[in-house]
């Protein structure tokens, strides 16, 4: 992954690029039960990208979302500062992170993190995590 390039992009170009990476990651989704593929691309403060997919389980509650897969990969590699996360799926409607993923992302947010929600055709809406996950603590 080219570290320098991503941080040199404009916000718009960066968001498009992250969606593209999330869409590509989606191909690895393990979702035999819902057949709903989700991909995520998590951009670190240093410009590295961790991808994630939803990983389902016969015991449905053991399913992990794409967003958390990406966070878990990043944290376990020592990366805990993030700029943005993009999310893609096959749906016509925009995909937004679930409550548990918002909570997990907020653990690492310093008020800067963007959440980029896209639809199948690549349109997107960008939010600050704090907009979609109001926090009871001062940031
Ligand atoms: O933001 C979301 C929403 C849903 N899913 C997954 C969980 C499950 O595998 C499938 C259906 O909800 O989509 C995600 O990975 N991220
Ligand atoms: Zn989730």
From TrEMBL:
- EC class name: hydrolase
The GO terms describing molecular function are:
cytidine deaminase activity; identical protein binding; zinc ion binding
List, alphabetically, the CDD domains matched: cytidine_deaminase
Residues reported to bind Zn(2+)? 65, 98, 101
Q: Which GO terms describe its biological process?
A: nucleobase-containing small molecule metabolic process; pyrimidine-containing compound metabolic process
- Record keyword Cell division present: no
Q: What is this protein called?
A: Cytidine deaminase
So where's the catalytic machinery, residue-wise? 67 (proton donor)
GO CC, alphabetical: cytosol
| Keyword Cell inner membrane among record annotations | no
The entry sums up its family as follows:
Belongs to the cytidine and deoxycytidylate deaminase family.
Q: What does the protein in this record do?
A: This enzyme scavenges exogenous and endogenous cytidine and 2'-deoxycytidine for UMP synthesis.
* Alphabetical list of PANTHER family matching this protein: CYTIDINE DEAMINASE
Q: Identify the residues that the record assigns to the CMP/dCMP-type deaminase domain, covering every copy.
A: 13-139
Required cofactor(s)? Zn(2+)
Q: Which residues form a coiled coil?
A: none
* EC number of this enzyme: 3.5.4.5
Q: Which UniProt keywords apply?
A: Hydrolase, Metal-binding, Zinc
Q: Which reaction does it catalyse?
A: 2'-deoxycytidine + H2O + H(+) = 2'-deoxyuridine + NH4(+); cytidine + H2O + H(+) = uridine + NH4(+)
């Amino acid at each position: 992954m080219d570290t320098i390039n991503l941080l040199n992009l404009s916000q718009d170009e960066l968001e498009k690029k992250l969606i593209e990476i999330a869409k590509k990651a989606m191909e690895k989704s393990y979702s035999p039960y819902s057949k709903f593929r989700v991909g995520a691309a998590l951009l670190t403060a240093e410009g590295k990208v961790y991808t994630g997919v939803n990983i389902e389980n016969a015991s449905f509650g053991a399913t992990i979302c794409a967003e958390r897969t990406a966070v878990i990969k990043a944290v376990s590699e020592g990366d805990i500062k993030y700029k943005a996360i993009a999310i893609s799926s096959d749906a016509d409607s925009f995909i937004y992170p679930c409550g548990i993923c918002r909570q997990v992302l907020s653990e690492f947010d310093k008020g800067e993190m963007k959440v980029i929600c896209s639809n199948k055709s690549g349109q997107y809406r960008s939010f600050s995590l704090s907009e979609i996950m109001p926090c009871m603590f001062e940031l």
